[in-house]
UniProtKB/TrEMBL annotation:
Transmembrane segments: none annotated. The lineage of its organism: Eukaryota, Metazoa, Chordata, Craniata, Vertebrata. This is PH domain-containing protein. It comes from the Eukaryota. SUPFAM superfamilies: PH domain-like. It comes from Cirrhinus mrigala (Mrigala).
């Protein structure tokens, strides 16, 4: 999940009420991370390359960027 904007890592995410589960692949396996959504702020930003992307901002100053 961590990295610079120049080194994207493709991950499979499942949205459930209040939580985003993160997997390495779309196969049924062990999740590698979670994001508690009630603690995050969603910020939409236009992307120069693909149109749009969004940022989840957590109060502990850790951000997650994702392409829509």
């Amino acid at each position: 999940i961590r990295g610079t904007l120049k080194s994207w890592t493709k991950l499979w995410c499942v949205l459930k009420p209040g939580v985003l589960l993160i997997y390495k692949t779309n196969k049924n396996g062990q999740w590698v991370g979670t994001v508690l959504l009630n603690a995050c702020e969603l910020i939409e930003r236009p992307s120069k390359k693909d149109g749009f992307c969004f940022k989840l901002f957590h109060p502990l100053e850790q951000s997650i960027w994702a392409v829509k």
